[in-house]
Amino acid sequence: MRSVGILVLGGVDEWDLFTAYSFLVRASTEDPRQFELHRIGHEDWVHSKHGDKIHTARRVEACIEVDALVIPGSVDGSEGHLPPDLPGYLSQRISGNRPTYAVCSGIHVLGWSGLLRGRTVSIHGSKSGSLARFDAVYAGDGLHKDGPIISIGGAHSEPKGVVVAKTVLHDLNLKSGAGAARRLELEMPNAAIAR
Question: 28 falls in which pLDDT band (50, 70, 90)?
Answer without folding.
Answer: confident
